[in-house]
Specification:
Length: about 100
């Protein structure tokens, strides 16, 4: 087991309230339950309005597999993508893969 953490940073679109993000975040957490290799996910916001999500996976391969499935779901259900893009300023998103040492 690699113990891989994915750290994602982004900002919300102008006019979006944190409560809207919390609803979407809860849905993401629900969708992740039972996914092979998934351990936990949490999010936080800093004083500058940056939102951070940390997700722990057993391995990078499992995270990549999930990511492929997520991309496929976005293609099959454009409404999901619209919801995400309405709330999250996607061009602000940064993702880092962290491995415990």
């Amino acid at each position: 087991m690699e113990n891989v953490y994915i750290l994602v940073k982004f900002v919300l679109n102008e006019g979006i309230k944190i409560e809207e993000w919390k609803k979407l975040s809860d849905r993401i957490n629900s969708d992740l339950k039972g996914v092979d290799g998934f351990n936990f996910r949490d999010s936080a916001i800093d004083e500058n309005g940056n939102v951070y999500c940390i997700v722990k996976w057993d391995s990078i391969e499992q995270q990549k597999s999930f990511r492929k499935e997520l991309d496929k779901k976005f293609e099959e259900n454009p409404e999901m993508k619209k919801i995400m893009w309405r709330i999250v300023k996607m061009e602000s998103m940064e993702m880092n893969i962290l491995k415990l040492i």
